[in-house]
TrEMBL record:
Biased composition (Low complexity): 302-319
The keyword S-adenosyl-L-methionine is assigned to this record: no
Region annotation (Disordered) ranges: 295-331, 543-581
Biological source species: Brevundimonas subvibrioides
Name of the protein: Elongation factor 3
Alphabetic keyword roster: ATP-binding, Coiled coil, Elongation factor, Nucleotide-binding, Protein biosynthesis
Source taxon at top rank: Bacteria
InterPro entries according to UniProt: AAA+_ATPase, ABC_tran_C, ABC_transporter-like_ATP-bd, ABC_transporter-like_CS, ABCF_ATPase, P-loop_NTPase, Val-tRNA_synth_C_sf
Matches recorded under Pfam families: ABC_tran, ABC_tran_CTD
Keyword Coiled coil among record annotations: yes
Gene Ontology molecular-function annotations: ATP binding; ATP hydrolysis activity; DNA binding; translation elongation factor activity
Biased composition (Basic and acidic residues): 544-555
Coiled coil: 623-650
């Protein structure tokens, strides 16, 4: 949708603005105009200067040259990438910019925050929603939002979309969330090569337009190279040119060369991502049957059990054992006061190569489900069977592995030294860091100096260095620019291992997921084939905080059949259908369970023998025999898993039938 026409002058206009960042120019000749009541996005790579440009628009920093004009009386509100919450309560914070208390209260309530809540100890999502409430309460003419969807769940993002569209102010938004930008923007400003180009259409038209611009630039550079080549030949080799050579021609040739050097220098480096799926896992990755999990929150005034997090927007993590441990409900027990149900009676199966997305509100228990799938938590009820040869790598949204005082070098080489083992091969830490767009000068800087996007790239760099046949990515899109997201999507699309993805990025989920599990925070959980769009179409209102209360959805999405009235005569007149496996099949299922549990140890023994580099030279026949035994064990495991899955499917069909 095109921006609305306005007879009024722009709220803010930048003309021929230039800004130097140390030795390099950050902006050169930037022109930018923001129309009243127009919702625009500011697009560009990480490090291009988007946040700095927003500060220039607001007047928080001054340009080295150029003009900034502002319509008289224009009010600004700004939500930075990492808001700083001050004051005793959220109401104190929300009114600190001059908003009326009643207005601040209304907006805090709109974003699901209590005005009296303490401003300390907030989760990432709570910080973001409080900052947004403060900005809207100030009734700006221009609202500037820097990555507003970070740490926000899907419901909060959809609420923000509605409020931005309904607002009477203009908006300038920096975001990597394509679905969000598609819904709210009317124009696009593209910061590339230190200048800004403007498209008077919404973000849904951006990709095609940007691709066309890049093609034209590539063609222009090709023509410039041809001109330089022809002029150089003429200047140095032509007899005629030697007689008529002059300074003006020499300066023209040098100017073309300098122009080419600048254009080539402006071509941004691309991130280089790779992943090794390592050894092949068993066909079965995880089998969950009737799994339930709850956490118990002690009443006010009682000391909380050590290590138990408060219920909030971060999913709770419990000890890796069930039963009656502190904070956990005893298996099979009744619901206690203060108990928080994460999931109940959930059954699913993850097969090698599946791409499973987990979605839901913050605090619904998505990370808890991940830990159940990884075997790091035990269920209160039900069983979890994990497959063989799993080598998972877990990218944690909390970034707990990164300490602010450690350097980038330390983070990449936790064991010391100057090299890192990348998918089985040694690589110098500087070369590996360069693959992820880090400069050599950043290697000795503390992590606290890195931007959010740089810290996320660092986590991805550490995760992808290890072979993994199971990738678990918890909110991997936070702070990443769209080019890096595209590269990550391309990498994951070609990954032949198992992918478990926790994300609020609807477009990211749509592009990658083959199955989506939704958790609504009330213990209900449902699984649907496909991505986010498929899930929400088949389960309307399931994730809503207001709809579906009291509903009970267990396991896979399916219509709930009415419970038949039992017959007064318990003896059926005719034999009923078979409801369970035959004795032979049950016995075989137990045999397969034992076989699947034992074979990975045999495989590990053979692999350990083959890992000896001198084994073949010392005993060629023994090496060949071990190789054959390894192949046979792997084939036996695959066959056992296939048979187990067939018998399990047969058993489930009998039970449901």
């Amino acid at each position: 949708m095109a921006p609305r026409s306005s007879a009024r002058p722009p709220l803010v206009a930048l003309k021929d603005v230039r800004l130097q960042d140390g030795q390099r120019p950050l902006f050169e000749g930037v022109d930018l105009a923001i129309e009243p009541r127009t919702r625009s996005c500011l697009v560009g790579r990480n490090g291009a200067g988007k946040s700095t440009l927003m500060k220039l628009v607001m007047g928080l920093i001054e340009a080295d040259s150029g003009d900034r004009s502002v319509q008289a009386g224009t009010r600004f509100a700004y939500v930075p990438q990492e808001p700083l919450i001050v004051g005793e309560t959220l109401l104190d914070y929300a009114t600190s910019g001059g908003a009326e208390p009643w207005m601040a209260e209304a907006w805090l309530t709109t974003f699901g925050m209590s005005p009296e809540k303490s401003a300390r100890g907030l989760s990432g999502g709570e910080i973001r929603r409080a900052a947004l409430a403060k900005a809207f309460a100030e009734e700006p003419d221009l609202l500037l939002l820097d990555e507003p969807t970070n740490h926000m769940d899907i419901l909060a993002i959809e609420l923000l979309e509605k409020e931005i569209i309904a607002a009477k102010c203009a908006a300038l938004i920096v975001s990597h969330d394509r679905a969000f930008l598609n819904r709210v923007t009317q124009s696009c400003h593209w910061l590339e090569h230190r200048r800004v180009r403007t498209l008077n259409k919404g973000f849904d038209a951006f990709d095609d337009w940007a691709a066309k611009v890049q093609e034209e630039e590539a063609e222009s550079l090709r023509r410039l190279n041809k001109r330089i080549e022809a002029e150089t030949y003429t200047f140095y080799r032509s007899i005629t040119a030697q007689r008529t050579r002059n300074e003006g021609r020499a300066r023209a040739l040098e100017a073309m060369r300098q122009d080419r050097a600048l254009r080539v220098k402006d071509i941004p480096r691309e991130i280089h991502l790779g992943v090794d799926s390592g050894v092949t896992s068993g066909k079965l990755v995880a089998d969950l049957k009737g799994v339930s999990k709850s956490f118990f929150s002690p009443p006010p005034g009682r000391r909380q059990a050590a290590g138990r997090p408060e219920a909030g927007e971060s999913s709770p993590h419990g000890p890796a054992s069930g039963g009656s441990a502190a904070g956990l409900r005893p298996a099979g027990g009744e619901l206690e006061q203060g108990e928080r149900v994460i999931l109940k009676n959930f059954t699913t199966r993850v097969i090698r190569g599946d791409r499973l997305a987990i979605v839901g509100p913050n605090g619904a228990g998505k990370t808890t489900l991940v830990k159940l799938l990884l075997g790091e938590l035990a269920p209160d009820e039900g069983t979890i069977k994990l497959g063989a040869n799993l080598e998972p790598v877990y990218l944690d949204q909390s970034r707990e592995g990164l300490k602010s005082d450690m350097t980038l070098w330390d983070a990449l080489t936790p064991g010391g030294g100057d090299s890192i083992l990348v998918r089985g091969h040694s690589k110098h830490v500087a070369a590996y860091a360069k693959d992820f767009l880090f400069q050599e000068g950043q290697l000795r800087q503390p992590i606290s100096t890195l931007s959010g996007g740089e810290r996320n790239r660092l986590l991805i760099a550490r995760a992808l260095a290890k072979p993994a046949n199971m990738l678990v990515l918890d909110e991997p899109t936070n702070d990443l620019d769209m080019e890096t997201l595209d590269k990550l999507e391309e990498l994951l699309d070609g990954y032949d291992g198992t992918l478990i993805l926790v994300s609020h990025d609807r477009d990211f989920v749509d592009r990658l997921a083959t199955s989506t599990i939704g958790m609504n925070g009330r213990g209900d959980i449902v699984e649907t084939p496909g991505g986010w769009t498929d899930f929400i179409r088949q389960n309307p209102g399931f994730l809503s905080r207001d709809e579906g209360r009291g509903s009970r959805v267990e396991g896979k999405a399916a219509p709930v059949a009415a419970t038949p009235t039992p017959s007064l005569d318990p003896r059926p007149s005719t034999p009923g259908p078979q409801k369970k496996l035959s004795f032979k099949d049950q016995h075989r299922l137990k045999e397969l369970d034992a076989l699947i549990a034992a074979l990975p140890a045999d495989i590990a023994v053979h692999e350990a023998r083959l890992a000896d580099v001198n084994f073949y030279s010392r005993d060629p026949s023994g090496f060949d025999a071990t190789m054959k035994a390894l192949d046979a064990a792997r084939a036996k495991l695959d066959a056992a898993e296939e048979e187990w899955l067939e018998l399990e499917a047969k058993r489930e069909a009998l039970v449901s039938g």
